[in-house]
YqzM family protein
Amino acid sequence: MTMSDPKHPELHVNEEPSNDFIDTALGFGVFFGVLLLIAVAATVISLLVK
């Protein structure tokens, strides 16, 4: 394999470096926040209906 081969890993340019752990943690955090918001809204509505 020569350096001019396009499949050479050292020549691959990572256009968007990303941190998978941060992406996953942020996703879980946002999902938890949305579910918490829904739960709070449902609780408030159920207390107002009584």
Q: What stands out?
A: Residues 20-49 form the longest helix (30 residues). The chain has one domain: 9-49. The two ends are 74 Å apart (CA to CA).
